[in-house]
Amino acid sequence: MSLKLISIFITDISQCGGTERTVISLANYLSENSYKVKIISLFSNKESKPFFEVDSKISVIHLQLSSYMNGSLFIKLKGYINSYLKVNRFIRDHDADIFMGTSRNTNLLCILGGKKLIIGCEHFPNNVPMNGFLRIIRNIFYKKLTKLIVLTERDQHYYKLKGISTEVIPNAIPFNSCSVDFNIKEKVALAVGRHSDQKNFKELIRIWKCIWKRCEDWTLFIVGEGPLFYENQKFAKEIGCDSIKFIKYTNSIIEYYMKASLYLMTSIYEAFPMVLIEAKNLGCVNI
Description:
By secondary structure, the chain is an alpha/beta fold. The protein folds into 2 domains: 5-168, Glycogen Phosphorylase B (Rossmann fold, 3-Layer(aba) Sandwich), CATH 3.40.50.2000; 182-286, Glycogen Phosphorylase B (Rossmann fold). The protein is 35% helix and 17% strand. It contains 9 helices and 12 strands. It has a 7-stranded parallel sheet with strand order 3-2-1-4-5-6-7, with helices on both faces. Strand 6 (147-150), helix 5 (153-161) and strand 7 form a beta-alpha-beta unit. The chain is globular, with a radius of gyration of 20 Å. The model has no long low-confidence stretch (mean pLDDT 90).
């Protein structure tokens, strides 16, 4: 009996966010359980390496598309059409038993590819900020999915009301179970994520400035990268908040969880973020 082939589409496998970690963890699990897996990365190039470890049996294909995420509406539309043509050609030339999208854009591209068995995954809440017309398009096209996977029952309820077949599969903890030694917890607060408008780290920095006046022996670690990294770093310096340490993303993130007593989140929107699960599992109080 031949192995079932699953083709998983991801925006950029070289990124180090929660979506990338979740997708690679899923791909590794499927590979270890007798599935043949391909990961198709839209915007990475052949020199790009996955930030997280990928099972050696998994094929990683880089489509090397030009990013259309930023820019005018015309640039985005032109980029999306170009991406559709290339992804559609790839899907025609590379058949699979199951096609899987891992974001709104990859879900839509898989649907437009015309295959029958398509699983879509949403890592953001249904009410994530977006153009109203695009929201309507998303909800119409998602009806063509074999199944949509979401992180919360609230999102499931929303999509089911739109006539979309939906199941809930929460994020899994990527770490092996380990006992927490509360004796090594320090006066450390932690935030992990991409420096973007969504994560709202500037607001966290403002709040920490107020808190720090009352507990000057505490330190806040913000771990992550992104377009606002240096801007947030500069802002913390400008307001005189020296107790914040900015750390670029690391594969040793578990070490920061282990010593942190608090996990802080100021995101504008989230679905069911993996970082909250990780922090809780490793003995942090989530705020």
